Amino acid sequence: MTKFTGKGVYGAVAVGKISVFKRQDIQVKRIRIEDTQAEIARFEAAKEKTISQLKDIYDMALKEVGEANAQIFEIHMMMVEDDDYNAAIAEMINGQKVNAEYAVAVIADNFAEMFSSMDDSYMQARATDVRDISNRIIACMSEQKDNNSFSDEKVIICADDLAPSETVSLDKEKVLAFVTAHGSSNSHTAILARNMNIPAIIGVGDEFLSQINDGDMAVADGFSGELIVNPDEELLSEYRQKQLDESEKKALLQKLKGKENVTLDGRRIDIYANIGSVDNIGAVLLNDAGGIGLFRSEFLYLENSDYPTEDMQFMAYRKVLESMPAKKVIIRTLDIGADKQADYFRLDKEENPALGLRAIRLCLSRPEIFRTQLRALYRASVYGRLGIMFPMITSVSELEKVLALCRQVKSELDSENIEYSENIELGIMIETPAAAIISDKLAPMVDFFSVGTNDLTQYTLACDRQNPQVEPFCDTHHEAILRLIEISAANAHKHGIWIGICGELAADTSLTETFLRIGIDELSVSPSFVLRLRDNVRKINLSE
Ligand code: PEP
Ligand code: MG
Question: Is residue 260 part of a domain?
């Protein structure tokens, strides 16, 4: 029995045989060519075939992982057609009289190195893409076949790394999990895995591939990030039992669909879902969430290489609202900075980024960015029941500035004869101790509060949420945090507004009863937690 540890990027367990991913082994030789025109024609034909393959992959990705994630293959198609890339290959074939495969391989290396040496991390990531498309063109010329034909048995795919096109091309029906030596949790491949609901472990390290074989029995634990190869019978049956328990639990929970979130003594609570992308709507609907309590809009910015335009944002917000007819959708305005960085914002490096220019502070410092987002939100508001929520509020004057900007956007839209809803709820996140303490002053200014316990914990206990070393000091049940929530709830109700919790603590079922007793009206959790929480609420009796 051998154990390898990486990082789990999708929590689920798989038990099955290993299949080592065999990348097409393309041996490119330099061959002298006399008829360069015929060679260029061969390259053009391979390019056409590549584009057609990429179109198929794009369609497959669109179905499997949604538009935002499928976009990478549109970028690949654009790269295949790129003038500079094509001119450089043709020039090499003509000038050096070499075969097309060799020219593509050399130019791909040059482009990849150029991308890797750029400062911008988005451009650096394009190095993998240019290699990916070039290998595909070479494979088309060499007529190489896919040598990853799996048997009918489902397998755990193990690879050094997987390019996005390879991940999405894997036959999902035959893949139990995948494990890679390299990769980061924000790579496109990890994002695709999460959205495909495939248990995945990344960054296991180079040595693991030399120690495993096709057909080895293994357990891939996406929760702990462990790959256990050739587990003993005891461990194997433990994991099989774990899988059975998980699927039984899931099946039982499905029976709660359509049921109310009501305690035994009749107290009702809203259970909403947290999302980071339009593509997560499927999971929200599947798990019967009553609404969306937190749409982390910054992911729209993080997925792009430049500021998303007003129209781009409008389309995304409209889609979410239309997918949730008659249900509340709370979109949080841009919360970038600290751990969420996009190069094109060109933010200065900060000593203490969590205490720095993030979220609402950034929006107030760069009102043009904020204004674009607010315009998109107001325009989308006619397509559903929109709530707009502002992160990282610490003072009344900050909130006054935010609300003034909202009024300004409304009068701009009025003068342009653009429609917006008059029933948008405006709310703030309670995620700083300051906001909780002055919640009596903030409550009359808004329609709701939503407690961001992830940041509220970090700022109350002075524990950097990014630093694993301080985790032992970070008691999420600390009395100080519960008291701050209680103060905020009392002030919310005193002023007739509702209060929810959208941080991770909302899913902590050991606190659900406490939250209900404090008077929390809404809990917003990951879609897969909605039914578990409903189950918990329905077993609570507040009259005891
Ligand atoms: C929070 O801080 O609890 C929260 C929900 O926001 P985020 O995790 O995105 O900072
Ligand atoms: Mg937060």
Answer: no
Residues 430 and 447 occupy one common structural domain: yes
Burial of 266 (0-12, 13-18, 19+ CB in 10 A): exposed
Paired tokens of 470? 């301080």
What is the C-alpha to C-alpha distance for residues 248 and 351, in angstroms, rounded to an integer? 48
Q: Give yes or no for residue 47 CB within 6 A of ligand 1.
A: no
Q: Which two tokens stand for residue 254?
A: 């499905």
Range(s) of the domain holding residue 171 = 2-22+148-235
SS3 string, 467-516, reads CHHHHHHCCCCCHHHHHHHHHHHHHHHHCCCEEEECCHHHHCCCCHHHHH
Please name the residue whose Cα sits nearest to atom 9 of ligand 1: 296
> Which residues are CB-neighbours of 244 under 8 A, at least 6 positions away?
none
> Ligand 1: does its nearest atom lie under 6 Å from the Cβ of 296?
yes
Instruction: Give just the sign of the alpha carbon dihedral 205, 210, 215, 217.
Output: negative
Ligand 2: centre distance to CA 363 (Å)? 15
pLDDT along the chain (544 residues), means of 10: 87 89 74 92 93 88 75 89 94 93 91 81 77 88 57 85 74 86 64 70 88 94 92 92 84 91 98 90 91 93 89 96 96 91 89 95 97 98 98 98 98 98 98 98 98 95 86 92 98 98 94 98 92 96 94
The pair of three-digit structure tokens given for residue 294, joined into one six-digit string: 């937190």
As separate numbers, helices (DSSP H) first and strands (DSSP E) second, the chain gives 20, 16
Q: Report how far residue 387's alpha carbon sits from residue 292's, in angstroms, rounded to the nearest whole number.
A: 9
Reading across the β-sheet that carries 175-180, which strands appear in turn?
Answer: 2-5, 226-229, 217-221, 13-20, 155-159, 175-180, 200-202, 7-10
User: Which residues, 6+ apart, have CB-to-CB distance to 151 below 8 Å?
Assistant: none
Query: Looking at the structure, do residues 128 and 152 belong to the same domain, yes or no?
Result: no
Residue 502 designated active-site = yes
**Residue 251 within a domain:** no
Say if ligand 1 is within 6 A of residue 503 CB: yes
pTM over 0.70: no
Ligand 2 centroid to Cα of residue 431, in Å, is 6
| Token output for 304 | 């792009």
Q: Which of 121, 142, 163 is the last residue of a domain?
A: 142
Marked catalytic residue, from 158, 406, 463, 502 = 502
Calculate the alpha carbon distances from 248 to 288, 303, 531 in Å. 18, 36, 13
